[in-house]
Amino acid sequence: MPTSTSYTDARQPTLAFPVAAGESLPLGTWEADGAKHTSRSYFTFDLTPYLGKEVISAGLQTGEAWVDDCTKPREVELWRTDTPEAAPTWADAPATHEKIGDLGATATPCPAGYLELLVTEAVQRAVDEGRDSLTLMARIAGDHENAKHYGRRIEQPRMSLNANAAPNMPGKLTVDELACADGLLIGTTTPILSAEVTDPDKVDGYANDLVTTTFAWWPVDRPAERTEWTSYSKSAPARFSYSVPAGLMVDDGTYAFAVKAADQHASSDWSPECRFTVDTKAPAQPTVSSTDYPDDDGWYGGPGIAGEFTFAANDGIDSVGFRYSLMGALPTYVAADAPGGSATVTITPGKDGPNILDVEAVDATGNRSPVTRYVFRVRDTSPTVSDGNPTAGYGEARTLTFSPRMENVVEYAYRLNDGPEQIAAAAADGTSTITVTPTKPGNNDVYVRSRTADGVLSGEGSYRFYLASKPTVTSIEYPIGKTGAPAGTPGTFVFGPGMADVTEYVYSFDSRPTETVAAGVDGSASVTYTPTTAGPHRITVYTRTGDGVVSETFTGSFLVARAA
Question: Is the model's pTM score more than 0.85?
Fold first, then answer.
């Protein structure tokens, strides 16, 4: 739609007549209240969205709202004028330039509901001249402008405009995802060349135009051997890639590539060239050494005790760093102190025994050497644990003695099962004796580390002992694991505790719902059960203390004889 629409009136030459939305515009001579008027109409269109673009097509559309005499030919001319600062008057009309054409000269209906005139050339000229607006004037041709029978009114015009801007010059060029830079090295003869393409043509902020890219690459010393490849189309913005086929690039070759983009109407300029050198040679295997953890048959350090390791390149100036991994962990990279130099790192082994350190040299391209495998032995520094009363049962104290495998031990950090960590001071000989009272049926574990006066922790030692808690089950009628009385015979089953402070038994015959029986003063209990079928039967029993501690479960089977 126009940014401004108005008409002038020769009868009122100093007045301007802006037109509101929906109002029609008079052209030529017309009468009102017995007075004669002659008018021309002006409309201005904003061209700022199209500056710098190619105008593919532009058409002005309107329609006739009223015609004085349909027997007279339609003689509506469209002219380009200067763009006025305000709505023009007849006396102060903008300068008229070239005629654009005749509006609806061949349209047969009268009044014509639709009139159109192509104005592509006029719009393109205005855009090329850098003008941000275009003003058009509609008038009746020649002397007929003063003849009432040629007068008419037209609807406010609109313009349909299709314009295109060339894609922007491709940017952000990469080779195998590495940004272009001086001295770029690539470790493959089949690199992926890539560029980002944007296009000024957008609709509501979304990508609109379909664009293609042309990649060109060549050996720097032989530019005539240029290879070009054009991509499929994608909506911009987008990143385009081209994979160089095998057999075309060689090691030590230096190449350049550039990219241009195109839509269906225009092309961008070629991007600045991006140069790179192919380097596929792997650096030499590095050497690894350590005085803290030598790779001989000796045992050194301990878990948690750090050591220094030195990596050295063996290939002149190719290697710029090293990748290293201990016991299959994710690799870590460290830069060399100079091209072809060395690097010293601190590594803390986490376990005793043979440890494996894998090291690779890395060159500036990212090529990696064969792996150097360095094996060193970490001594066991975990304390030993001796049990002063290994037959102690559930709820009974145990005396445990910790003995060091390191020098200058001043204390021990220990815990029972998942309990809190406790600290015990070491005696002059480095040992420490502690007492634990376990209350967990079954397996119990004590974990312990020693600590030296320098704060060095040992590896973790452990000691496991078992607290029997499973109840016993006896029956005269139906002995466990044997054949008992015939089916239908009541049987008494006596439960005995496997741990102290038992208050009840939870039992089940043949996977039936569990039942509970209270323990007597001596901790035992008995129940009666009458099996009704011959063959194998099953019983499960566990105990519970007043504090809610649950024992292990006894599971047993017995056979019931057939009734006579």
Answer: no
